[in-house]
Structure formats: C-alpha cells, structure tokens
C-alpha cells in the first residue's frame, strides 16, 4: 500500500482523498520531525521562564486569564478534551474522519503548534492501524472546530468510541487491539488536538475531488444530450472561446470536443437549428464557471491544508510565541459558498437540458421521448423528481457563513460555520449525481429514437454503459429503479474511466 509522506507543506487534495478512501499509509518527514521537536522544546523553555502561554500555563477562551499550574497539566488537558466534547450527530463517515486526522497532522507539522511529538505520532498511528475515532459532525461554528475535533482527543486518551478496522468498539478496546497505549497529555496538548480547522478543511478537500469529477461527468452528459438533440457545435469552437479567455470555459469546450470526436454532429445538417437554447449553447460555459470557482477554492484551500492555523503561533527561529488569528478560515469558506452558488447554476442548466430533450419543438422527436405516442407515457413525470432535487440545491446554495453568535463571554465574536458550509455543498453534489444520472438516461433514449449510429468516440462508450444498466424505455415501468441504477453507475465512476 502506498505511503504518503507528510511534511506540512505539500499535501494535495488527491492525497487527502486517497488517505480517506483508499487507506493509504502516512509517515512524517525527517525535516518535519525535527521541527516538531524544536517547537516543543521552545514551548517548555519559554514557559519555564514564566512566559504566559495560551493553552499551556493559561486557560483557553474566556478562561485565558486563569493560571494552570504544572502539577495539573495532565488533568487540565484531559478535562479540556472532555469539556469540549459537545458535538451532535450525525457522525462523520470513516473516510471523513480519516481525512480530519490527516489534515490536522499535516498542519501541525508546520512546527508552529508545539504539540508533543508523541501525540503527533499517535495521529499517524491511528491512520496506519485504521483506528478511527467516532466524531459527531454537528456543533462546530468554524474558527477552530473545537466541538468536534475534541472527540479525536477523547479517543486518544482511551475514552469514547472508535472504529477499529471498520468495527465499532470502545476506544480503550480499540487501542488495545491496535497495540497502542492511551495518550498521556502534557501542556498545550489538549488545545493542540482540538483547536484547528481540520474538520471543515478535510471535508472541503474531499469535496474538491468530488466536484472535479462532477464537472467531467456534466460535460459528458452535455455531449450525450447534444447528440440526442442534434445540437450545433459552433459554440465549442476553440477560436470563439479563446476570445473570451475564461479558463474554465476554454477547458470545458476542449473536453467536450474531445468526447464528441467522430460524432455525426461534426457533419452539416440543414435541419439543425441555427442556435440552440442557452442551456445547450452555453452549457459547457456554465460548467466552466464551476471549474473557475473550484480553482479559486483550490488555491485558498491548499494554503489551509499546508500552513499553521494555530494560536498562539510558535516562531522557532525567533524564539517567540505570538498571539495569532491564523485559525481564521473565512477566505476559503467564502470560496466554498461561491462554489455552491456556481453548482446551483450548473444544476439548473442540467435540468433545462433534460427538459429540452423531452420537448419535440427542440428535438423533433416524440414528446417525453416516448417510443409510442398515446400508448407509453415515458419521461413525463420524472421532471418533478429532478426539479425537486434542484429546489433543494437552490436552498442549500444560500450562504450561511455570516450566521453566527458572539460566544465565550463575547471574546469569540466572529465565526464562519465552515463545517456547515461544506456539508451543504456536499449534499448539493449528491443531488447532482441523481440529476446528471437522469440527464444521461434521457440522452441515451433520445439517441435511440433518433437512430443515429455515429456517436463520438467517448459518448458511444458512455451510451453503451447506460444501456448495460438501463434498457431502452419501450414500455412504461417503475423509473425509480432506473434512477437508482443510474445513480449507482455515476457513483461507480465508470463514466470517468472513459475520459
């Protein structure tokens, strides 16, 4: 199994995804190992000199003015973990929790935290032994996911629950089976475990990979629909799009032309419309807008994954510990909301394309793609299903990063709700997998009715995949079954393997 070396500097979205979903092992680079030891030593040195350190010899939050005596370091840090375990279900999936562990470990390796090396090794060992804490997902307001990440610390001290190799059990039992000992918490360890943006950032990193795949799938559905529509390809011309200069639009047009290579659409047809409806004429450009929004998010989120989000911030070279606001995540959280808005446009476009395929005035085919007018109803009622899903998407696209309270004695008077923001966009992505599955189903039906055999090299393979899962709609049947089959096909990533 592949091992990913973490160094606090270059963790990629795909690596987070592979650690989460493919159980890739992790290790710590030599340079990062050296940094975490140096920062820990500096922490003790400054504390020994009487330097007030938040979370070490001083309390946290509203209790920042409370002194913590050395003889109480262990009990104080354990109580800090327990008292912050206030999160509610639903629980994070095992891949989501694995991603949180990986992201928190990587940001700690920057060397600005001062967490004990033994605790950081435990993050690594939890991942490599597949010992995954049970983490409820609701309760964090962002700005440091203390209410949820505290459950990682709870498992590390042998309390709470874990999944050991997929089986749920007490943390004490899981540690024993994995051959690991419960953590002995020292100064600042409690704060270091629970105070970071690793919950929201980890889910956002997984989201990035999912949306990348979704854009490719939508381009494919668009192309298959174009062949069902007998659409006009002029808008895809690279010369036209080069004049516009939007990188996402140019990339999506290029991909669509590649999928349609060899298609009958490249041949002239006097019956073809002069201009198609905007959902087809500009469908790839809307997908390009999503790609542009995604790339903006990737730029900001990559910084989050590979920098310190800790307070206070240890500066080893200068031998100082400074108060920081590096836990401020609003830059990338707003970018997630921007992506959600873009996906709402993406969804609406897919719904309209699917509707157009059922409309004879656009396709010159039968109404609702029925094979037998007046006998088979075909794809009439299904419009209610995908438009209902789109309604949910419109609701989920509404921003929520600004909906927060001032808490902790009015000290913590800003937040961004990063986990909620990401969770909403994740739900949008799941809805879109159904919507695109239905669009692909319509595209295949329209192609059958058009009886056009010269499909694109890629779209022909996509059509064949659809017909393996869902046969031509000859007679009315329970379409819930077909929708579910298409969703499973989308989830399997079989379409992506064609691209």
Shape descriptor reads elongated
Percent of residues in helices = 55-70%
Distance between the termini: 26 Å
Largest beta sheet: strand ordering = 4-6-7
Output the CATH class name of the largest domain: Mainly Alpha
Number of helices: 19
What string, H for helix and E for strand, traces the elements in order? EHEHHEHHEEHEEHHHHHHHEEHHHHHH
Low-confidence stretches: none
Number of structural domains: 2
Structure description:
It is a single chain. The chain has 2 domains: 194 residues, Fumarase/aspartase (N-terminal domain) (Fumarase C, Chain B, domain 1, Orthogonal Bundle); 295 residues, Fumarase C, Chain A, domain 2 (Up-down Bundle), CATH 1.20.200.10. It contains 19 helices and 9 strands. Helix 4 packs antiparallel against helix 5, helix 4 crosses helix 9 and helix 11 packs across helix 13. The mean pLDDT is 92. It has a 3-stranded antiparallel sheet. A two-stranded parallel sheet has the order 1-2. Helix content is 56%, strand content 6%. With 499 residues, it is mainly alpha-helical. The protein is elongated.
Topology summary:
Layout: E1 3-6, H1 13-21, E2 25-28, H2 30-48, H3 73-84, E3 88-91, H4 94-108, H5 117-128, E4 131-133, E5 136-138, H6 146-156, E6 161-164, E7 167-170, H7 171-178, H8 189-194, H9 198-229, H10 238-244, H11 247-259, H12 278-281, H13 283-305, E8 313-315, E9 320-322, H14 330-357, H15 360-363, H16 382-396, H17 418-450, H18 457-469, H19 479-491
Parallel strand pairs: 1-2
Antiparallel strand pairs: 3-5, 4-6, 6-7, 8-9
Helix pairs in contact: 1-4, 1-9, 3-6, 4-5, 4-9, 9-11, 9-13, 9-14, 9-17, 10-11, 11-13, 13-14, 14-16, 14-17, 16-17, 17-19
């Amino acid at each position: 199994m592949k091992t990913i070396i973490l160094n606090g500097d270059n963790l990629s979205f795909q690596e987070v995804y592979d650690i989460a979903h493919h159980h890739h092992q992790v290790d710590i680079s030599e340079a990062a190992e050296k940094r975490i030891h140096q920062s820990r030593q500096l922490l003790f040195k400054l504390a020994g000199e009487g330097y007030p350190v938040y979370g070490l010899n001083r309390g946290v939050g509203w209790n920042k003015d409370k002194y913590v005596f050395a003889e109480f370091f262990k009990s104080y840090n354990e109580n800090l973990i327990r008292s912050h375990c206030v999160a509610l279900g639903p629980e994070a999936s095992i891949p989501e929790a694995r991603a949180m562990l990986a992201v928190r470990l990587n940001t700690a390796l920057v060397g600005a935290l001062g967490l004990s090396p033994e605790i950081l090794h435990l993050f690594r060992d939890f991942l490599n032994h597949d010992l995954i804490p049970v983490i409820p997902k609701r309760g964090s307001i962002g700005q440091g996911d203390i209410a949820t990440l505290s459950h990682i610390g709870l498992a590390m001290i042998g309390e709470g629950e874990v999944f050991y190799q997929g089986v749920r059990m007490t943390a004490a039992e899981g540690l024993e089976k994995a051959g690991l000992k419960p953590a002995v918490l020292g100064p600042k360890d409690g704060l270091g475990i629970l105070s970071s943006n690793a919950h929201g950032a980890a889910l956002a990193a997984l989201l990035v990979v999912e949306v990348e795949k979704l854009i490719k799938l939508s381009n494919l559905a668009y192309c298959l629909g174009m062949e069902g529509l007998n659409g006009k390809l002029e808008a895809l011309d690279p010369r036209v799009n080069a004049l516009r200069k939007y990188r996402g639009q140019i990339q999506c047009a290029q991909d669509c032309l590649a999928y349609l290579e060899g298609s009958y659409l490249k041949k002239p047809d006097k019956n073809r419309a002069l201009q198609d409806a905007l959902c087809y004429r500009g469908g790839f450009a809307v997908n390009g807008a999503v790609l542009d929004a995604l790339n903006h998010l990737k730029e900001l989120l990559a910084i989050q994954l590979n920098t310190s989000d800790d307070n206070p911030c240890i500066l080893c070279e200068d031998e100082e510990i400074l108060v920081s606001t590096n836990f401020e995540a609003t830059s990338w959280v707003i970018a997630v909301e921007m992506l959600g808005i873009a996906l709402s446009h993406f969804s609406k476009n897919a719904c309209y394309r699917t509707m157009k395929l059922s409309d004879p005035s656009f396709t010159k085919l039968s109404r609702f793609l029925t094979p037998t007018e007046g006998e088979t109803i075909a794809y009439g009622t299904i419009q209610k299903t995908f438009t209902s899903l789109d309604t949910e998407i419109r609701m989920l696209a509404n921003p929520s990063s600004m909906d927060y309270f001032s808490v902790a004695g009015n000290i913590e008077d800003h937040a961004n709700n990063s986990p909620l923001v990401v969770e909403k966009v994740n739900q949008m992505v799941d809805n879109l997998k159904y919507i695109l599955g239905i669009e692909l189903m319509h595209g295949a039906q329209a192609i059958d009715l058009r009886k056009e055999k010269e499909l694109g090299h890629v779209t022909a393979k996509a059509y064949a995949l659809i017909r393996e899962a869902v046969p031509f709609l000859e007679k009315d049947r329970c379409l819930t079954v077909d929708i579910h089959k298409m969703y499973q096909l989308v989830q399997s990533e079989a379409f992506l393997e064609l691209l």
